[in-house]
Amino acid sequence: MSSTRLIKIIVYADFMCAYSYFGNKALKDAVAECSHLPLTFEIEYRAFRLNAALPDDVPVDRKTFLMDKYGPKYETLVTVMKGMAESLGLKITENGQLSQTTRAHRLSAKAYIVGGQELQQVLLQSYFKAYFEEGKDIGNLDLLGDLAQSAGIMTKDETINFLKSNELNEEVEATIAKARANGIKGSPVTIIDGKFKLDGVQTKDTFVQVFKRLGKCENTTIPGSPCSETSSDGTISPKSTAVAV
Question: What's the distance, CA 107 to chain centroid?
Answer without folding.
Answer: 14
